[in-house]
Amino acid sequence: MTESSGPSSAPPPPPGGGIAPGSPAYRRANLALFLAGFATFSLLYCVQPLLPELVAEFGVSPAHSSLALSLTTSLLAVAILCAAALSEGFGRRGLMFGSLIGAATLNLAAALAPSWSLLLVLRALEGLALGGVPAVAMAYLAEEIEPRGLGRAMGLYIGGTALGGMLGRVITGHLVEAFSWRVAVGGIGLAGLVAAIGFLLLLPPSRNFTPRRGFDPHFHLAAWGRHLASPALRLLFATGFLAMGTFVALFNYIGFRLTAPPYEFSQGTLGMIFVVYVFGIASSWAAGALIDRFGRRLVLPGAAVATGLGVALTLPGGLVPMLAGLILFTLGFFLTHAIASGWVGRVAVGTKGHAASLYLLAYYVGSSVVGSTAGWFWTAGGWTAIALFLLALLGLELLVALRLRAVTAP
């Protein structure tokens, strides 16, 4: 892929005409994908603030408790590739709806799991089910939205994921304090079912997508191979891996720090920590305006620096600098993700669903690998060891962002 296919080259208008910003269809598509992002992330991450509860309930170690999340994201990463291929033959809308319904049902079943092993199995299956949403949603937006409205639409979708991640964690924190972790997980499952129905009713059918007949493995392998041959896309995939890995690792273990002395937060208070996701929603929505004014090549390294400064602020023991650090970290992460995910759709030439699936594969593998690996650092050196580990990864993310400036056009 040449530099001319970088961010300064907008993709040509879809052959059937894209959905125009400001139109009723644009508002419906944005709201539908917002609900899809909300449901996906609330279902996926509702167990994160419950890890200390799972340790107490099932007698597992903190590192093992993270499997309730890491297994889900690992299977999600694998399923994303399959879903991107399937969506080429079966369409975008139906696959996303089926994935949301299946995942919500499995979350309800996980709330009733009598054993740790069965809970992990159900959470792993939930990851498989959710694979039909993220890459397909990104492909739908890239195909159906006019290029001038794509940045805002992608930012709104990412904002939905931020809101889902926030409410999933905050609601479970309060429900577990008032009732139990089972009621908390079951409540998120019911919310996912409602969001799935709203998604189906709102999302306009695809106008610029033609399903492929049959299943041709060579076509899919060739498509993935073409995208992996692009230096710019490889760097964007690495950005997704590092950004999501550090994000999940920090929020996996901040709960263990804050529920221990001297803080001794209750589950309800701990859940409120995730209100910092409001700043992630804001940064996702602001991404389009920042890109228009300063360009992706400048904003992305700045987001990496902000994320690193956020981690550094969590090192002192005071709650005020820690909260400030969490806010800055969250702002930087969601800005990074909104820029990188939207950039993939613009750089990729053809088969945008395959490009999106590779980005999200790296994104969720980072969540699983770094999220679990950080447990070793927690055991070895507590929060200081985790913070230094994350700062090293974010330093690498900054280098990747600077390299992107060299391989893409201004």
UniProtKB/TrEMBL annotation:
The chain crosses the membrane at residues 31-51, 63-87, 94-114, 120-142, 154-171, 183-203, 235-256, 268-291, 298-316, 322-344, 356-377, 383-404. InterPro entries: MFS (IPR011701), MFS_dom (IPR020846), MFS_trans_sf (IPR036259), Sugar_transporter_CS (IPR005829). Keywords: Cell membrane, Membrane, Transmembrane, Transmembrane helix, Transport. Belongs to the major facilitator superfamily. Residues 25-409 form the Major facilitator superfamily (MFS) profile domain. This is MFS transporter. Its main location: membrane. It comes from Phaeospirillum tilakii. It comes from the Bacteria. It is a multi-pass membrane protein. It is found in: Cell membrane. Residues 1-21 are annotated as: Disordered.
